[in-house]
Amino acid sequence: MAALIPLAGVFGVPFAYPLLVLAATALVYRLEREPMSELGLTPTFARMGLGLLGLLGGAAMVAIRAFTVSGIFDGRIDLDLSVPMVFLLSSVLVEELLFRGYPFVRLVHGRGTWTAIAIVAVAFGVYHWIQWGLWNNPVAMLFTLLSTGSGHVLFAVAFLRSRTLWPAIGLHLGWNVADQALRVTDVPGTAAFLSGFVVSELLVVAVVVAMLRGPSRLRGARSPDAATS
Fold this sequence. Notes:
Strand content: under 5%
Shape: globular
Strand order of the largest sheet: 1-2
Radius of gyration: 18 Å
Order of helices and strands: HHEHHHHHEHH
C-alpha cells in the first residue's frame, strides 16, 4: 500500500499534500528560471491516454502476479476495496512529484540517466523503510529496497521515454490499487511471497525492456538508450 495513506487526510483534504508538493515544485522551477513543462504535467488527450494505458498496465501486472501465485499454490483471491482510491491517488501524486519530479530530473541532467535512476531508486527504498518502520527487520528492508527500487526504474523509464509524468502516475496508481484490492489467501506465506516477488520483478523487467526498445520522446536529458549505448 502507498506509504502516505495514513497521512493523506491530515488537513481534511485528500489532495492537500500533492498540492503542497506541486506548489513547492513550481516555486523551485520559478526560482531557477527553468521550464516546469519538462515534467509534462499539463493535461492533453495524448498524455491522459498514456496515463490510462499506464493505469491499466500497472493493474494488469499485479493481477498477473496474484493469479499466478494463486494458481501455483491453489489459493484464493479476495477483493479488498477498504482503502478509498482518492487516498491512493493522493499518495501516488506526492511520490511521483518527489521521486520522479524536479530532484530526479536535475540528477538526470547532472549525472546521467542510469546514475540518477540508481540514486533515486535507493532513496525511494529508504523512504519506504521509514514510512513502514522496517529498521529492525533486515530481510524486509532488503526485499523492500529491491521491490521499490525496481518500481522506481519502471516509473522513471516510463517518464523519461514519454517526457510526461502521466504514464508513471498511471502505472504507479494501477499497481497500488490492484495491490490493495487483490488479496491472495490460503497460500503458504513465505513461498507465496517469494513467488510473487519473482513474478513481479520479471514483469517489471519485461515492461522496462519493452519501453526501452520503443520510440523515445526524451529531450534535453540523456535518454536510457544513450546511457546504455
